[in-house]
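User: Can you write out an input/output pair for a complex, sequences first and structure second?

Assistant: Here is one pair. Inputs:
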Amino acid sequence: MPVRARPLSPHLQVYRWQIGNSLSILHRMTGVALSLGLLALSYWLVSLAGGEETYAAAAHVFASPLGLVVLIGWTFSFLYHLLNGVRHLFWDAGYGFERTQRHASGWFAVLGALVLTVAVCVLVWHGARP
Amino acid sequence: MSLRSPLGRVLGTGSAKDGTGHWWAQRVTAVALIPLTLWFFYSLLALPALDYSSVKAWLALPLSSFLAVLAVAVLTHHSYLGTTVVVEDYVHGAGLRVATLLTLRFLYVLFGGASIFAILRVAFGS
């Protein structure tokens, strides 16, 4: 009996890319990024407990150009995952499912995270305190 | 006639074996993390500097070390729940999947434990 290509159910690539699925994917990606950040948090805390020299070594790593880029990435990831997480909690409670509400809250989460990330960077750069 | 056992009907967890336990734990930890992570983030930003003495003096305060331990514990649990789903979605093949999940779980206990131990060392000054 010849084996014929069987019909498959539509997969991801046939759907139009839009804000809903993009933000959902971004939520998962930032979650994974933040999970990797837990390793860095652990390293930082252990270096602090280790004493002045180990802390200075860790601080040197974080203050390097690559370290700063990654820290800014984690700042955005944290703020986005937080704002979009609240958006998910509202959905879980049964609110905000209308098309306009979904789009508005989605843009609020991603733009809010971007604005707050820039604000944090400016604050830290100028040595100001909240 | 139902083919479900009386015990299965009472437990009501269906074919996923653990019902809504995972989903609910993810939400509970998410809600707890809103104040905990905001406190942690804000505290670090509010420190005069992120040098050794400033950070150590701050983390050694009883309230700071207590909340930091809670934050690390809940973060670790929340992150474990999330990455477990990611592994279950993308890692195929029963053997590899179990091995990945087991490794992941051990890593979370290892790093979460190390973080909490470090905070306690700072708190109780050794």
